[in-house]
Amino acid sequence: MNRIEGMLEDFKKAKVVFLTTFSEKGEERSRSMTNFNEDPYGMMWFPTYRNTRKVEDIKKNPRVLITFPSSKEGVFYEIEGRAEFEDERVVNEKWEWWWLYWHPEQEDYFLFDRRSRHPERVIINVYPLSARIKTQE
């Protein structure tokens, strides 16, 4: 994938990115996603729930866009990628890490069930294919 000057640094600063999926009719559907990934040039992952529109869109069309701001005003980066769903074993491992990242106070609570399967949980892996700079119109 092509490297863009400044993109790595701005990606690391982006706490939120936008994930765009496409409907069967090609309509863009964007939503914010928490970004704890470190590298826009490698596989990125995002936990979510199975019964969401983004998951349904990806099942029908794996093309996605990841968009986040540049440090330059009015400039954004857009990464086009291919989305896949993670293996259930990995979902359980990563989900625990992700949950405790946001809720560290729950690590020692019995309410946090580490053993049970949670079929509604899923992780979207995004494999970047290309990147470009977009400007605000």
Question: What secondary-structure arrangement, pairings included, does this model have?
Answer:
Layout: H1 7-13, E1 16-22, E2 28-34, E3 44-49, H2 53-60, E4 63-69, E5 75-85, H3 88-102, E6 121-135
Antiparallel strand pairs: 1-2, 1-4, 3-6, 4-5, 5-6
Characterization of this structure:
The radius of gyration is 16 Å and the shape is globular. 22% of the residues lie in helices and 39% in strands. The chain is of the alpha+beta class and 137 residues long. 19% of the residues are buried. The model has no long low-confidence stretch (mean pLDDT 87). A hairpin with a 5-residue loop joins strand 1 (16-22) and strand 2 (28-34). Strands 2-1-4-5-6-3 form a 6-stranded antiparallel sheet. The chain has 3 helices and 6 strands. It has a single domain (7-135), classed as Pnp Oxidase, Chain A (Roll).
